[in-house]
Amino acid sequence: MIKIENMTLEDYEKIKDNLQKDFDDFWTHTILKSELENEMSKYIVAKENDNIVGFAGIIVLPDDIEITNIVTKKSERKKGIGKLLLEKIIEMSRETKKEFISLEVNEKNEIAINLYKKFNFEKVALRKKYYNGTDDAIIMTRKIM
Ligand SMILES: CC(C)(COP(=O)(O)OP(=O)(O)OC[C@H]1O[C@@H](n2cnc3c(N)ncnc32)[C@H](O)[C@@H]1OP(=O)(O)O)[C@@H](O)C(=O)NCCC(=O)NCCS
């Protein structure tokens, strides 16, 4: 069974050396650590028998909430973990009393876009050539409610 918990520095220590290999290559572990230490950010982990199989985070800004990251361990994808993490993020967002939750996603990341659409996120804007000076970023938003 998958449990979702708040992410601790101890959790971070367990994944930091294999972050790129096991999860994804868009973040270095130093960025993740500074996010965990940022008072405005909240991070969660998905665990299966104490093994970390995914994590996700938000940053609470004055006007809205932004999803900074959501990632499932490569070997554990397509088992519903991304949906569990996103569900929990939306639940946490309700507690902040903000109105909107938004995120940026690479236009080519169809898998993530499908996941967000499933949770009623809508495309609201484009940031041209945002990733590596080539790919556009899509900004997606939904009302928290
Ligand atoms: C995006 C990501 C978190 C999804 O995680 P996951 O645990 O595999 O997702 P789930 O199994 O919960 O699937 C959720 C939905 O995503 C979509 N999806 C997942 N895998 C897919 C695939 N291979 N092709 C198309 N859509 C897919 C589907 O809509 C799926 O819902 P469904 O199973 O009801 O059809 C994962 O692919 C990942 O870690 N990607 C790399 C990091 C990343 O790009 N994060 C987003 C940054 S903005």
**In total, how many beta strands?**
7
Beta-strand content estimate? 35-45%
User: How do the SSEs run, as a string of H and E?
Assistant: EHHHEEEHEHEE
The gross shape turns out to be globular
Query: What class, by secondary structure content?
Result: alpha+beta
CATH architecture: 3-Layer(aba) Sandwich
Question: Can you give the helix content as a percent range?
Answer: 25-40%
> What is the count of distinct domains?
1
pLDDT < 50 stretches? none
How far apart the termini lie comes to 28 Å
Q: Mind telling me the CATH class?
A: Alpha Beta
Looking at CATH, which topology would you report?
Aminopeptidase
In this entry the ligands are: coenzyme A
CATH superfamily: Gcn5-related N-acetyltransferase (GNAT)
Provide the gyration radius in Å: 15 Å
Describe the structure.
The chain has helices spanning 9-15, 19-23, 29-37, 81-95, 110-118, and strands at 2-6, 41-48, 51-60, 65-72, 100-106, 122-131, 135-143. It is globular, with a radius of gyration of 15 Å. The chain has a single domain (2-143), classed as Aminopeptidase (3-Layer(aba) Sandwich), CATH 3.40.630.30. The model has no long low-confidence stretch (mean pLDDT 95). It has 145 residues and is α+β, with helices and mostly antiparallel strands. The longest helix is centred in the middle third of the chain and has 15 residues, at 81-95. The structure holds coenzyme A (COA).
